Amino acid sequence: MASASLKSKKRVIVAFVIFCILLLVVCIKVGYIQIVQSQTLTKKAIAQQTEDEVIEAKRGDITDRNGKKLASSTIRYTVWARPGDIKDVDSASKKLAKILDMDEAEVKKLLSQDKSLVKVAKYLEYSTAQKVKNSGVAGISITEQSKRYYMLGNFASQLLGSVTDDNNGLTGLEEEYNNYLKGISGRWVQDTDASGNPLSYGSETYHKAQDGDTLVLTLDEVIQHYAEDAIRSVYKKTEAKRVMCLVMDPETGDVLAAASTPSFNPNDPRVPAGSAELKAFNKLSSSKQMDYLNEMWRCPLFNDLYEPGSTAKLMTTAIALEENLTSMSEKFYCKGYIYVAGVKLKCWSWRNPHGEENLEEAVGNSCNPVFVTLGERIGLDKFYKYMELFGITQKTNIDYPGEASPILQDKDTAGPVGLATMAYGQGIAVTPVQLLSAVCALGNDGKLMQPKLVKEIKSADGKVVKKSADTEVRQVVSKATAKKMCTIMEYVVDKGGGEEAQVAGYRVGGKTGTANKVVNGKYSDSVCASFVGLAPMDDPKVAVLFIVDSPKGEIYGSTVAAPGAKKVLKKTLRYMGIKADYTSSEKKKINAEKTIVPDVTGDKRSEAIKKLKSCSLKYKISPATDSTKDFKVTDQYPKAGDEIESGGTVYLYRE
Fold it and tell me: 338, 508, 584, 596: least CB-packed within 10 angstroms?
């Protein structure tokens, strides 16, 4: 009996000890949870009981100077999931994968993550989002998201740029003005139950999103079309590496068009345009692909340098006239070469010397010895002083990312030969926008204007947030010198090397250039052909720079660049409403060749094609498609009422 009692006591003691140990373990565990894990668990509890939804701001539009939308944002939908609220992952994955056309294993992996919130799919159409919403899957929420859309595909693509997946500026003006365009996101915070449904007695806080501002560009959509049409034509004809065209207003510094080949579609900026290019791109390594994309995205009109060649002779002439070192009546003599510090420098036409010529004729003939002579008279100090005045020694500070800095020979080491070669356009590397800005000064009474791409910025409700004023940088040369230069430039087009840029009914002035490209530190046989011009010369309203990089066959600025510039000037002058003054012979020739473009905007594709064929006009669909399905024409180029050559092409734009 005593033994049984002792055993019972021992059992009680053991049970008590075990109980105390368990109690101690529970206390330690509770203490660990309450003290050590309190912050983590509190966050998880709040996450489960609170829905914090980001209200994305709508990215601002980009329009041309006349309000034509070039980039906008459309509403798309994003599917989010709370993995902790999903009871049957397999069933949910199967349903969502079917609706979203995704791999079931991929969806399951997303829904199994140890996160409070995961993104399942984005950029969904409204109909797809509604199917997800009605699927009955617990723990799923849908938010609106804005997606960037470029209405005209690869139109002005390098200028406009593109955005990242999260709607931030990646390149071009999208990057430069990202802080204005992106807006400020809002938030909607509300208390929810375990299934994510709002509680009727819960609290909520709503912070409205502030939509982005609208960029109104200086760009004119119609003139940009003219420029792109011209570079495509020359690109195809010359098989050049690249063709570029920049159009500006000399009086304001406004960039009216900026086009270059090859381009890309900013709606899908990481895919090269063209099947052959895409095939080659896919074979590259990741680092090489990135290099390719960066090259494709950059705008050479602002980001790249080139030697202007003989187009720079305009500045040398202006300096000499301004400093009274020559006159319009002075006579020069070209014997095909000239010696400078014992070095023989040849004229491009050294086999057939120009002989006696006045200043106008020397510029028209692009005679190197004459410009060497003028350079010697000017001297290094004055030459560099005026290069600075013309804006050739520093960036223009145009509102575009990554503008390149110009390169001139070092003043201390240039010497007489360096000065001589710079005087006729070698040994200087500039951006196209620098050169055209300098030439614009000659057409603007000697005043250099600040080039710009954005006219104004408007808030989402239409109020002007920022306006870009027309800014005079400095007076480079006198009004009298500028007028003389306009006379000389007009002579170049009328009787000199720029005859291919003549436009019937208009006074056009300009200068051609053909510069050998530097490869591995030496001049190669490859050239950059160019033409820079102004019109009309009595009061210039438009300036154009047309560059053909590495053309095949014909290589001279007079034969490959001047005709391209003519295409742009001819259409632009007419579009701007500048009255033409035709001779009787010009009128007769023009009337026999022109056709008025019919209005097909709003028509079905089939109807539009019939109208165009009846007017002996061709057509192209943009964006291109192999489908023969009918669609509504949303826009056209050239516009209705424009006069174009018979047999010309009209671009039909679809949604």
Answer: 584
List 73, 310, 366, 468, catalytic entry: 310
**What does the H/E/C string look like for 19-34?**
HHHHHHHHHHHHHHHH
Helix (H, G, I), strand (E, B) or coil at 642: coil
Do residues 199 and 191 make contact, with C-beta atoms less than 8 angstroms apart? Answer: yes
Instruction: Compute the distance between CA of residue 160 and CA of residue 400 in angstroms, rounded to an integer.
Output: 10
Q: Which two tokens stand for residue 479?
A: 């009004």
Cα(193)–Cα(48) distance, integer angstroms: 8
The Cα 78–Cα 462 span in angstroms is 29
Structure tokens at 588: 């007769």
**How, if at all, do strands 62-63 and 214-217 pair?**
parallel
The answer to whether 364 and 305 are in contact (CB under 8 A) is no
Crossing angle (nearest 10°) for helices 368-389 and 313-322: 80
Q: Mark whether 310 is an active-site residue.
A: yes
Cβ atoms within 10 A of the Cβ of 604, count?
13
Supply the DSSP symbol for 86: -
Cα–Cα dist 594/631, whole Å:
29
How far is residue 208's CA from residue 369's CA, in Å, rounded to a whole number?
69
Predicted model pTM? 0.78
CA dihedral 56, 183, 64, 532 (to 10 degrees): -120
Helices 562-575 & 221-238 angle (0-180, nearest 10): 160
Neighbouring C-alpha atoms within 13 Å toward the C-beta of 130: 3
